[in-house]
Automatic annotation (TrEMBL):
Domain NADH:flavin oxidoreductase/NADH oxidase N-terminal: 4-340
PANTHER family noted in UniProt: NADH OXIDOREDUCTASE-RELATED, NADPH DEHYDROGENASE 2-RELATED
Name of this chain's protein: Alkene reductase
A Pfam family recorded for this sequence: Oxidored_FMN
Coiled-coil intervals, chain numbering: none
SUPFAM superfamilies: FMN-linked oxidoreductases
InterPro entries reported for this sequence: Aldolase_TIM (IPR013785), OxRdtase_FMN_N (IPR001155), Oye-like (IPR045247)
């Protein structure tokens, strides 16, 4: 029987349960290098069947938020080694999320104050990066005016993804998750409202708009092997100034079909609520499930009961929880035993030190204190 607590074979990788810790940026890596505190944070959460790390920039150009631990320099690879070792010590599994933010960045984060790059020069209106303001303070600032990547530069970004994947394996990760979701660079190419290019990555056809993501997948697979590669997508995402476009459902279903042929570890949908709140949302998910025949993960405001139901109905194979994992390091044990959950606090999601990061107690500690 497939329930949340049964084991799962993820392309040859044994997961002790079907609960995934969703990738979550915490912006606590000073100098963009994961450290002992990062290792402790992930180790505390190693009860998950699979952890997907916070987004890890594949290059300086790919960063849009301060204090995010990258995966492009030797120091960053060394930093992540502590994390993967700590998770493996607790019999956990961890994938590295490979991230290029594209236009959701700011000149203060880019080399020599350059403009961020995107699929086109369309700016993300009313959207912030986490960067330096005019006073030099870390702050949420409007994303800068981007410039469109040239055709040759796109090929170079594809190679950055492949190199980052090899780095992730060197750092001890069990695999990588390509971040194709939430309005970042890959989705900027997929969305016809943003991708106004006229080259072969161009916006006039579904095929053109899917070229970049498929090249990234192929390059990453060539670097580390298909069974170690997952990808995250967010169909119908409207965050980060992503517009509605024609043939939207058809685009995502075509991508699902094409990814099916690539023998990946999984596809991960990040935004269950945005998908189901669409007209025909449930039908779309069912069509996606049919089109993509491999392991499917989904995240988005799941409760234990909803997760169990979606597993039972065969809609997905693994259930991802995001925010509940921030405030419940022992989330799996709490769900299993029916113990109450500690509420999460958005004020401590990003930045700062150990407060709201590694200081959340497990339930047994809370219960012991109550009994004292
Ligand atoms: C603090 C925070 C940081 C996040 N960072 C990322 C990220 O780096 N990469 C990503 O794909 N999604 C990110 N997300 C989205 C989550 O992975 C997840 O899809 C979303 O929170 C919905 O799941 P939930 O309702 O269980 O929290 C983030 C969400 C939160 C709350």
């Amino acid at each position: 029987m497939s329930d949340l607590f049964s084991a799962y074979d993820l392309a040859g990788l044994h997961l002790k349960n079907r609960i995934v810790m969703a990738p979550m940026t915490r912006s606590r890596a000073v100098n963009t290098v994961a450290d002992a505190q990062t290792a402790l944070y992930y180790q505390q959460r190693a009860g998950a069947g699979l952890i997907v790390s916070e987004g890890s920039p594949i290059s300086r150009q790919g960063a849009g938020y301060l204090f995010t631990p990258g995966i492009y320099s030797p120091e960053q690879v060394e930093g992540w080694k502590q994390v993967t070792r700590a998770v493996h010590e607790k019999d956990g599994k961890i994938f590295c999320q490979l991230w290029h933010v594209g236009r959701i960045s700011h000149v203060s984060l880019q080399e020599n104050g350059a403009a961020p790059v995107g699929a086109s020069n369309k700016k993300a209106e009313n959207t912030t990066a986490f960067a330096y303001d005019e006073q030099g303070q870390a702050a949420r600032v409007q994303a800068s005016q981007p410039r469109a990547l040239s055709t040759q530069e796109v090929a170079a970004v594809v190679q950055d993804f492949a190199r980052a994947a090899a780095n992730a394996v060197e750092a001890g990760f069990d695999g990588v998750e390509i971040h194709g979701a939430n309005g970042y660079l890959i989705e900027q190419f997929i969305n016809a409202g943003i991708n106004t290019r006229e080259d072969r990555y161009g916006g006039n056809s579904v095929e053109g708009r899917l070229t970049f993501v498929l090249e990234v997948v192929d390059a990453v697979v060539a670097a580390i092997g298909s069974s170690r590669v997952g990808i995250r997508l967010s169909p119908f995402n409207r965050g980060f100034d992503m517009p509605v476009f024609d043939d939207e459902a058809q685009t995502w279903l075509e991508l699902a079909r094409l990814l099916s042929g690539k023998n990946l570890a999984y596809v991960h949908l990040s935004n269950r609520k945005a998908i189901i709140n669409n007209t025909n949302g449930k039908a779309f998910l069912e069509a996606f499930r049919k089109a993509y025949t491999g392991t499917l993960i989904m995240a988005g405001e799941y409760t234990k009961e909803e997760g169990e139901r979606d597993l039972q109905e065969g809609l997905i194979d693994l259930v991802a929880f995001g925010r509940p994992f921030i405030s419940n390091p022992d989330l799996v044990a709490r769900l299993k035993n029916g113990w109450p959950l500690t509420a999460f606090d958005p004020a401590v999601f990003y930045g700062g030190g150990q407060e709201g990061y590694t200081d959340y107690p497990v339930y047994e500690e809370i219960a012991d204190q109550a009994a004292d």
